[in-house]
Design goal:
Largest sheet: none
Number of domains: 2
Shape: rod-shaped
Structural class: mainly alpha
Number of strands: 0
Number of helices: 4
Strand content: under 5%
Order of helices and strands: HHHH
Distance between the termini: 149 Å
């Protein structure tokens, strides 16, 4: 149906062109123009233009528009990704700074706690050392007292024994010296 319409249109324009050539043959012949051929070429050009427009230019234009739209969407997505990346970097830097601050706080708190524990342990150790020294001094004093009492007791026994011997024997200077030396020697061998 479109072809019949086109044929009728061609015929009508051809008749119009013939009428135009009969009225002004001087202008067309002056330029060396064949009006019928020119009109036919004009109609052919119009048909080719219509076909190209309908089946070539329109689909190509739509395809280019779709491609342009995809490229724009891709650019928008890329911009969004760059923006999100920048936001993530800022967040990451903030979190790292926050973690470092917390870590520094934990380290300083741990140092303080360790120093407090060390001071407490040192104080306990000093107190325990002082107690051990005091106990040692007290024990040493008790043992010294015991030794002195034992020595006094032994000395008293020796004096009594020596006195008994002296009283049994006649006392002379020589004998007196021998008895004193024997007593001293007996004491020094025991201790």
């Amino acid at each position: 149906m479109n072809i019949q319409l086109l044929n009728e249109l061609l015929m009508h324009t051809a008749h119009a062109a013939e009428e135009a050539t009969t009225t002004s043959p001087d202008v067309a012949t002056m330029f060396g123009l064949n009006v019928k051929l020119f009109v036919a070429q004009l109609i052919n050009f119009g048909i080719v233009l219509f076909v190209l427009w309908k089946w070539v230019f329109t689909p190509v234009t739509k395809a280019l528009q779709r491609r342009t739209q995809k490229i724009e969407e891709s650019l928008q997505t890329a911009e969004k990704i760059v923006h999100e990346k920048a936001e993530f970097e800022e967040w990451k830097k903030g979190e790292i700074a926050k973690a470092r601050t917390e870590a520094a706080g934990i380290v300083s708190q741990s140092k303080l706690e360790a120093e407090a524990v060390r001071a407490e342990l040192l104080t306990k150790a000093k107190l325990e050392q002082e107690k051990i020294v005091q106990d040692g001094k007290a024990e040493l004093a008790r043992e010294e007292m015991q030794v002195l009492q034992d020595a006094k007791s032994k000395l008293a026994d020796l004096v009594v024994g020596a006195t008994e011997k002296i009283l049994r024997e006649k006392i002379t200077d020589k004998k007196d010296r021998e008895l004193a030396e024997a007593a001293v020697q007996a004491l020094s061998t025991k201790y």
